[in-house]
């Protein structure tokens, strides 16, 4: 039994050290990964006031069940009470762990952004969510969502055909893995001094407590 405890100690220390590296980067190289600008860069347009003191960086997948649940429930309250009031802003970054369909949906959202309709299209995807790996994301359905959000269809389809944003979405996925994202949804909630990671679709109270702490 003593040997087991001795073997466990380095593992526990390693886990604790890893947590501090995520939340409190010490070295110059780590700090370059965790500046607010670096974290937000290349993601979605900001939802809310750009100067809001607290940022939620959501890592999501359009097929993810718990991303859908967060979007349909918790986010509505956060939006009304915190984002619309200028206390919090939201940035979405893609982590398409459910395969090519998720990658394609993410590309489509940035094609919509070319026409300044990112959040409308983002919301339309979740509004029409059809499960994980069920085949509901197709070129036909993505075009249907584009019609619903009043996009120029010819421009939208050209963007998808050209795979204009494929490299961008792949790079977002790789950056997420680099900083320890391994599930969707995952959130980095931060101000100028501190980063708090929330993994999974946690209850609203977890987010409210995090806001208070920041």
From TrEMBL:
Please verify whether the record's keywords include Thylakoid. Answer: no
Alphabetized Pfam families for the sequence: Thioredoxin_4
Q: Which keywords does the record carry?
A: Disulfide bond, Membrane, Oxidoreductase, Redox-active center, Signal, Transmembrane, Transmembrane helix
Name the domain of life. Answer: Archaea
Q: Thioredoxin domain location, by residue?
A: 25-214
Where does the chain cross the membrane?
Answer: 6-24
Q: Which Gene3D superfamilies match?
A: Glutaredoxin
Q: One MF term in GO for this entry?
A: oxidoreductase activity
Q: Which family does it belong to?
A: Belongs to the glutaredoxin family.
Q: What is this protein called?
A: DSBA oxidoreductase
The organism is Nitrosopumilus adriaticus
**Upper classification of the organism:** Archaea, Nitrososphaerota, Nitrososphaeria, Nitrosopumilales, Nitrosopumilaceae
């Amino acid at each position: 039994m003593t040997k087991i405890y001795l073997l466990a100690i380095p593992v526990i220390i390693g886990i604790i050290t890893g947590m501090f590296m995520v939340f409190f980067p010490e070295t110059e190289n780590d700090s370059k990964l965790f500046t607010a600008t670096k974290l937000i860069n290349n993601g979605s347009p900001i939802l809310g006031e750009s100067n809001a003191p607290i940022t939620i960086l959501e890592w999501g997948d359009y097929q993810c069940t718990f991303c859908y649940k967060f979007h349909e429930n918790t986010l509505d309250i956060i939006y009304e009470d915190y984002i619309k009031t200028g206390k919090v802003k939201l940035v979405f970054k893609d982590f398409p762990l459910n395969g090519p369909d998720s990658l394609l949906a993410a590309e489509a959202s940035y094609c919509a952004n070319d026409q300044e309709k990112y959040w409308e299209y983002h919301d339309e995807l979740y509004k029409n969510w059809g499960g994980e790996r069920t085949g509901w994301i197709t070129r036909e359905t993505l075009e249907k969502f584009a019609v619903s959000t009043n996009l120029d269809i010819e421009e939208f389809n050209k963007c998808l055909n050209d795979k204009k944003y494929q490299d961008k979405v792949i790079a977002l996925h790789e950056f997420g893995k680099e900083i320890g994202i391994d599930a969707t949804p995952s959130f980095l909630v931060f101000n100028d001094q501190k980063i708090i990671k929330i993994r999974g679709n946690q209850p609203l109270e977890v987010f409210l407590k995090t806001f208070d702490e920041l």
